[in-house]
Amino acid sequence: MSEAPVRVCLAGATGLVGSAILREAVGREDVRIIAIARREVALPPGARMELLVGPPQDWPALIAAARADVLVSALGTTIRSAGSQPAFRAVDHDLVLATAQAARDCGITRMIAVSSTGADPAARAFYLRTKGEAEEALGKLGFHRLDLVRPGLLLGSRAEARPLERIARIIQPALDPLLLHGRWQGYRSIRAATVARAMLTLCRETARGRRVHEYGAIRALAQRSGD
């Protein structure tokens, strides 16, 4: 008798990584995606998934209704898209934590969150400091297992235009061969689909602890996807 699929509550299904997770989950029998979103999302062809829609203030009830085994947070924006640093922090810190707390309140003990290479609560850069502070706060919520996924530049098609990212995606492949070793490896570009496959692999991991996954680990996890 086959094992029951892992029930995955996905927050951030409309973003680059979230939408990649939806696509990569199609046809898989080991995971069942229940996405939480502010608006309707066009599910990929062949998807056997649930979508629960409501404003963020209703998400605690939606997360509880998902009856999930693990929370996956692909929430995130940019300062440019958000319009200001406070608006950016409201998503990448406050909403991430509120979603995580709602998951803990309804008994979810595992979480996987997309963060960023260089995330550090002591970083000078506001973006990386916010990411680091969010990681630090998530670590205090009492998840039995917390996986922090830290990609560098994400490659893939976004719904919204990000001019600086478009330029970076052109330049980055030429720089990647130079970022082969040590702490610089984490800054290599990586496809959102690769990150999505890695996160789906992590959905099946149950050993306790807090783990950080950067470029090499993300690629290794993606290769295990579907095993």
From TrEMBL:
Transmembrane segments: none annotated. Pfam families: NAD_binding_10. InterPro entries: NAD(P)-bd_dom, NAD(P)-bd_dom_sf. Residues 12-141 form the NAD(P)-binding domain. This is NAD(P)-binding domain-containing protein. It comes from Novosphingobium colocasiae. The lineage of its organism: Bacteria, Pseudomonadati, Pseudomonadota, Alphaproteobacteria, Sphingomonadales.
